[in-house]
Design goal:
Length: 266
């Protein structure tokens, strides 16, 4: 078996920033346990598998421990690889059939735009012990089909969070989005994303979280075009444009590694 595999920093304009994803291009469908094993071997937040299919591609995303229903940064990275390797011409859209429906990516100059579903949260009672596990007072608590969305009081609180990941892993959600207003003039809101139950203590830049953050801050700031910054150690900027029940995520990507996956099925 010889399959091309790439490591791409997504939501990044330079190497070694943003969120790294592994992208494996398949020539035939592979068993789920094999894909999960590859993702465990890559040991990145997500490993994505692309399979040509009809007028587009099938796309699936795996963390080191589970398959996920929606992933922004690995979708951006997958589209980037298809254009960079000339599997698509620069003017063609990258259309992906996924567990969250058909997703389209388009090249716009140096950036890539991802057409994703809005994932609005609804207010919910604050779960017992969550504030202590995060390490901050909760100003607002909401939840969508994937995650809790927690607002904290200010940027300094968000920057200083030191969550108890073991306790956070006990909550039955994909992850916990924590957000605040920005302390930077060019940025509208800040966030961090903790997902120990999905095998990722802190995700560097989470595109899919911005499907929730975008409409959340649109309602509070009164604008449909926003810029978010995910304040992880690597950090990354995500442009957001709300269009009805869709959200356009905007970012860049850089390939940092390419190779050949030779591991055969057991």
């Amino acid at each position: 078996m010889n399959l091309p595999i790439y490591q791409v920093d997504a939501f990044a304009s330079r190497p070694f920033s943003g969120n790294p994803a592994a992208i494996c291009i398949l020539d035939a469908a592979m068993p789920d346990p094999w894909m999960q094993s590859v993702a465990m071997e890559m040991n990145l937040a997500e490993t994505a598998f692309i399979l040509p299919a009809g007028n587009g591609f099938k796309l699936r995303w795996f963390t080191p421990t589970v398959e996920v229903d929606l992933c922004g940064h690995a979708t951006l990275a997958a589209a980037h690889v298809l254009w960079e390797t000339a599997r698509l011409s620069s003017g063609e859209p990258a259309d992906f059939d996924t567990r969250s429906g058909r997703l389209r990516c388009m090249r716009r100059g140096d950036s890539i735009e991802l057409d994703f579903p809005v994932e609005r949260e609804q207010p919910v009672p604050e779960p017992e012990g969550l504030a202590d596990a995060i390490g901050a007072q909760i100003v607002y608590c909401g939840r969508n089909r994937f995650d809790y969305l927690i607002q904290v009081s200010d940027a300094d609180t968000l920057y200083g969070l030191k969550p108890d990941f073991r306790r956070l892993a006990n909550y039955s959600v994909r992850g916990i989005i924590v957000t605040s207003v920005s302390d930077q003039p060019a940025i509208d809101f800040l966030s961090r994303f903790f997902a120990p139950a999905s095998g990722i203590d802190e995700d560097p830049v989470t595109g899919s979280a911005h499907c929730c953050l975008g409409p959340f801050w649109q309602h509070r700031l009164g604008r449909s075009e926003l810029t978010g910054y995910q304040a992880s150690a690597r950090g990354g900027e995500v442009g957001v444009r709300i269009q009805g029940d869709r959200v356009i995520l905007i970012g860049q990507a850089v390939t940092v590694m390419s190779g050949t996956l030779t591991a055969a099925l057991q």
